[in-house]
Structures are given as structure tokens and as C-alpha cells.
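Hello again,

I reread your note about wanting to compare the complex against the isolated chains. To keep things tidy I'm splitting this into two emails, and this first one only covers the full assembly. Below are the input lines as submitted, including protein chains and any nucleic acid or small-molecule components. They are followed by the predicted structure of everything together. The single-chain runs will come separately.
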Amino acid sequence: MELLVCIKQVPDAKDVRLDPKTNTLARDGVESIMNPFDRHALEEAVRIREEQGGTVTALSMGPPQAEEVLREAIACGADRGVLVSDRAFAGADTWATSYTLARAIETLGSFDLILCGKQAIDGDTAQVGPGLASRMNLPYVTCVQKRRQVDDTGIEVERMMDDGYDVVRLPLPALLTVVKDINEPRVPSLKGKMKARKAEIPVLSAADIGAEKECIGLAGSPTRVVNVFSPEPRGDRKIFTGTAEEQVDQLIEHLRDYL
Amino acid sequence: MDYFLTEEQEMIVETAREITREKIIPVRAELDEKNEFAASILEDIARADLFGIFVPEEYGGLGGGCFEIVLALEELAKGCVGVATTFAASALGIFPVLIAGSEEQKRKYLPDIAAGRRWAAFGLTEANAGSDASGIQTTAVPDGDHWVLNGTKQWITNGGEAQIYTIVALTDPSKGARGASIFIVEDGDPGFSYGKKEDKMGIRSSATRELIMKDCRIPRDRLVGRKGTGFITVMKTLDVSRPGIASLGVGLGQAALDEAVTYAKQRVQFGRPIIGFQAIQHMLADMATQVEAARALVYAAARHIDAHPRQMSKVSSMCKVFATDMAMKVTVDAVQVLGGYGYMKEYPVEKMMRDAKILQIYEGTNQIQRNVIGQELNKEYA
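Full-complex prediction:
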């Protein structure tokens, strides 16, 4: 089975700050990591390959240093990593990104199953997975918490819902986005790390994937971020004291003022 | 301090460190409390290829030696000496095959050990044969194409959990130690069973059981090395394995020091963090110095052993004594630095102190190690 995993390099969420002047994400000096949801997608792909054979391709779109997460993906079991990188991609929103990834995947060949993390922890949109599936005209399921069964004819998964889960069966090729419940990712192996160190990471440019200029980067991105800001801490708190009954009475009195 | 590790050795350290951080530390207190064997962590260790670090490349390993084991064990011991002991005991159990086994035996067992598909255990100790290993009473008698083993091994680490056991038995009881041989017994062999799991003071995530052989029949080709050479192989095995136990002491001592310094920086008494008091500073300074001295000796000993010198018993025993006595002292001091909190199970140093004690006892008590050092000195100055 030919598997492909989309992986994003993101700033470590333990250390997210906004630049107070520009109100954009301050990336300087922040450590980059593999998007945690993507790590689960990769683990699931590697497990499917271990059971069924085939290959796992890790694909990332990003600046040249995103090569690091692809090496990490190889250390965690991916067979190869491919980076899609070009200055022309800069400023891409989810619309342009899904276009770019779709072009890259079509350039690489055909895949039975594409796995993505539910969302990236920097943008938190959860749009690229579904966007990519739509671009490629593939059936997809988001928020997969469990793989029940997979073979050449199709895949059956559990989609996490607020009040339980749906069981969904879909034909292959298909795309899944996964949540963290799906598995417990492994620690990169020694042999994997040695392989990762030596691996060639091919880089595909906009020209390599035949991308239309107006569809990529800022030009291809209809999204405009008007403003990003840290919410002001709220100061108008009121603490009621006394017995539980007294507190409830005070609360009711207080709420009356708003009626 | 920089010990000038190769890139591959750095990778081993990093991998073992990740296992410790991601897989061991989150569950160590629970495993300790429940006296529970850490099977799933061993699977993680296997998937990370760590079981193969000391297995030659032609048998599917990474071709490292004693030093590579030391590096991995030190990191694992920072998380839990019980888990690390399980790993160390598997290495100990297969060393006799590496040292004295036939080509067929190596081909049969080493690839599984390297991949972590099977684990090993070493069966030497008996109820009446501890420090005096020559007192073993387990016997092996030839019977056609088989050997028949009878006897009981005691306090065997990985007992009941491992699939491959190297058992020391007498093939010629009249010759005492010179009549001992080593056999491979596999889980499921007829007449081979396990006693109850021991309830220990520390290293409770490791499994310790009796091995019971009652007319245990095994094929003739399970004899490791030549008949009667068992004790020579045992001594060579222990020479190579002792630095591993020493490194458990280094890892444990380092972990206890880390906890003590972290606590001393945040605990405020008399209006300032207690690390500002000289009484605490001097304790921490001694702990740190002892940990580093032990690490330097263990690394040097392991590198010496990997150079295959003719004589290695003395340095092997020296590093075991020094590093494990250090671990006992440093963990006791760590509990002291944490005071009442250190005595509580909510803080990890309580477990560390309990875990430390076994290091002075198993794989040759520290008194026996001093005997070895003393005997070697006696020979050297003859």
C-alpha cells in the first residue's frame, strides 16, 4: 500500500508569543518541532505499512529548514521525505497550501491513502486536510480516532464526535485526518536515525510541480488576516463569599442587574 | 563534561533519553507501586533498536560493545532502575552465548535478541549459592541426544518474562567449579517452570522469580561452549556486564542529584531558596563530584573492556563498587536535601533510594567486588 503523510514544521507550542509590534507569531528563537497531530498520522501510516507492506512518503511544504522534520519522519519510520519549497510559496493560506500540496502529490505519483494531522498547532485551522482531499477529488474523513480495518478495497475508521464516534467506511484512494487518540507514536529508532542522517531529501519547486503562479503563495491566498492580538486579561471579577446559600443569593441578585 | 562520544554513541544516548522521558518517567511511580513488569516499555525499547546495540552486525545488531550498553543503561536508569535492570539482565543472559556460544547458537538466538523479539535471563544464583557461586547444586546429566537438568535457581531477574535462559549447572559435581557448564533453556521446555514473583524493596518494575528445573529435557546442542568451562564463561560474562550495573548507579545518582538541585532552588526557608545555604551547597557539591567521578571511571572501564585486554576483572569490579556505593550515598543525600518531602512517595527520590540498594548487592556484592580487586592486587604485586 502506497501511503503519504503531510507533515508541517511548527513552532513549539510551549513557547508561543506574539510580536507586540506586528501582532504576528514571533518565530525568532522559538524551537521548531513536527506538528504533534502529524506525528500521530505518521505513526499510523508506518503501522499500516508494517502490517501490509508498501512505502510511506513524508511530504512537507515549507522553508528549507523544514527538511529537519522530514529527517525526523524518516527516523520514525517513513521510507522517504520530500520537501516542497520555493520562495513563491511564501504567504500561502490554507487555500493555496492545499493547491500546492495537491500539485506536489500528483507530481510524486499515486497513493492509496493520504494521512494528515487534524490541524497544525500554529494556525489551528484544520482546513488543509479537507482542502487537499477536495482538490484531489478524494473521499475523506476528519478527526479519525481509530482505524478499524484497511485493505486494498477500502478502509473503515472511527470519526471522533462530541458524543461518541461515527463508524465510516470509504473506498481507496482516500484521505484521513487523525486525532491524538489514534495511537501512541514511537520514539525514533537508532537504525531510523542513521538512515535519516544519510537520506537525500529531494526539494520540489513551484516549477517542478507545475504550479500556476496565481494559485500559490500570497497571490493564491484569498485569506487576509486583519488583526491578531492577545486578549486583554479581564479585570472585572467578583468573588462571592459566605455559605453556599448566601453565595447563590448574592449571585442571583447580581444577575438581576443584567436582566 | 565532554566524553568525546562518536555520533553513533550520541544517538544511542539521545534515543535512550527519549524513551526515558516519553515512556518511563510518566509511569514509573505506578509500576513501582503495583509491582508491575514494564512489558510495554520493553517493546518501545525494542522498536527503538536499543536491544541490538551490543549484538554484532552480522546477527542484526549495531555492533557496539560494553560502552554502548553503559551509555544506554545510564539514560534508562535516570528514569527507572527497575526498567533498566530488565534491559541489563537480558544483555547479561545472552552474554554467555556471545562469549562462548557456537555459530549455530549465535544465529539462532542473537537476531531475536537484537530485534527485541525475545529477552534473555541469566541463571546462576541458588538458595545456597550466592557470593559463593561454586556452591551451586543444579545438575545436568546427558541422556541420549538430550541433557536432563534438575535444580532451582533463585532471584532470577526476568524470570518468567524472558524466553531464553542461560543456566549454570554441574555436569561433573565431583570437580566443583571446574565441573560446571552453561546451558540454554527456553521458555516452554519440558520440566521447566517458574516460582512466585518476588516482592522487592526496590526495582519493582523488574520481575524476579525462581526457575525450577525438574527433569528438564533439552536438546544436546543447548550446551554453551565446552563441557566444564561454565565458570570461566561466567567470570568473563560478569567482567563485561558489571560496568552496566555501574552505569545504573551513575544514571540513578545523576537523577537524584537533578531532583535535589531542582528542589533546593525552589524551596524557600528562612526567606531564601535553600540552595543559598552552605550546608546544602556542600552536600550538592559532593553529590555532583561523586557522580562525575563515577561516570568517568565507568566510561574508562567500559572503553578498556571494549579493547579486549587480557585482564579486565579488576577495573570492572572497581567501577561497579565505586559507582554503586556512590548511588547509595547520593540517593540518601537527595532524600535529605528534600527533607520531609523526600520521604514521601509523591517525590521520586524515595523510590530512587530504595532502588539504589540492590546495586550494591546484585551481580556480585560490593564485598565480593573488593575481594576481586584485592586478589588482583595480590597477583600484580607478587
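For quick reference: The CA atoms of residues 213 and 259 of chain A lie 56 Å apart.

B.
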